[in-house]
């Protein structure tokens, strides 16, 4: 293997803030808003030119109910545009359901409205936003991050902060700072939307969208459909599936399950993008030609990038089991994503080892693999982000470290912001 030695250089510090949030998905937005509301100066860095992460970028546009803490605020903002959960009775029913985060509880929302409202939430709190920026390193000293190294089209720069929030989804900052993580392999899916579907006719023929699995399975078996990806459910993902979206005649389609144990490798990720996009196109054409109700349908949109469900998870101060998370009985519970549900996450799941001024939010928090299929969902990401943001602001204000944040006080602040425990 050949290497090139780069010359030593000085890197310009472009911002100096109390809290730097890395990643602009639901977790990052919630963290930035929560930190700013609690008195911190905040900057958020995001690789795309919009917010929402894989939710908006990978068309993950059905979600369990957004009904607790900052999720309720997001829901209200979207509902004023008719862009979330048009069936109020369905949303109310899922709140008390044992299947709150299963397929029957998924509620549609509009990704374009979401992109706008998430930016407005940050602007309302004077959060500085930097789009089209990648965090590529961390300058560390004595178990503390001093600055995040950022690459943009303008070159390399640095952002100083007192506390950092890793909401990258891949635990990138944790890795750069030397915090222990573990790599995981989960199915990858290209989502796509189809418009002008006669959903009543299609469901009259299929019985349910879940029946698409058997239609696809039979077609692959007979050779009439060339699909190499998995069809069946795994890791909380439904395999081949579809769901009604926010607009009449519009459905979201899960385009199969591709597996790779090297998805952090850009060459492998490129292969995944090409394979899943090509097969999504093939599947859309198949549905139009073979399923009643799709005669006039068209492929409206594919996701900006393939949906990667997991890459790394933090090995935090605690790694709770599935049973512990489901029953939700922790002395340091700070995340309760759903009202009237036991599911909970402890503060220790957000706190890395070996780094004192870093807190982690979103799908890469610390928990047993058996429960991560439920913890990667949108309401949980937002809830972990809200807790992380408040904790970050507290650490700055009290001049303490993330592990030493007073959890009882943190819980009080979250309850004051509308989190129901």
Briefly characterize the structure.
Helices cover 34% and strands 20% of the residues.
Question: What is the secondary structure topology, with strand pairs?
Answer:
Elements: E1 13-22, H1 26-37, E2 42-45, H2 53-57, E3 62-63, H3 70-79, H4 88-95, E4 107-108, H5 111-124, E5 128-130, E6 134-141, E7 144-152, E8 155-166, H6 172-177, E9 181-183, E10 188-189, E11 191-195, H7 199-206, H8 212-222, E12 241-244, E13 251-254, H9 266-290, E14 298-302, E15 307-308, E16 312-314, H10 322-327, E17 333-335, E18 345-346, E19 358-360, H11 369-375, H12 378-398, H13 407-416
Parallel strand pairs: 1-2, 1-8, 2-5, 8-19
Antiparallel strand pairs: 3-4, 6-7, 7-8, 9-16, 10-15, 11-13, 11-14, 12-13, 17-18
What does the model show?
Helices cover 34% and strands 20% of the residues. The strands form six sheets. Strands 1, 2, 5, 6, 7, 8 and 19 form a seven-stranded mixed sheet that branches. The chain folds into two domains: 13-184 and 311-416, FAD/NAD(P)-binding domain, CATH 3.50.50; 188-308. It has 421 residues and is α+β, with helices and mostly antiparallel strands. The mean pLDDT is 95. It has 13 helices and 19 strands.
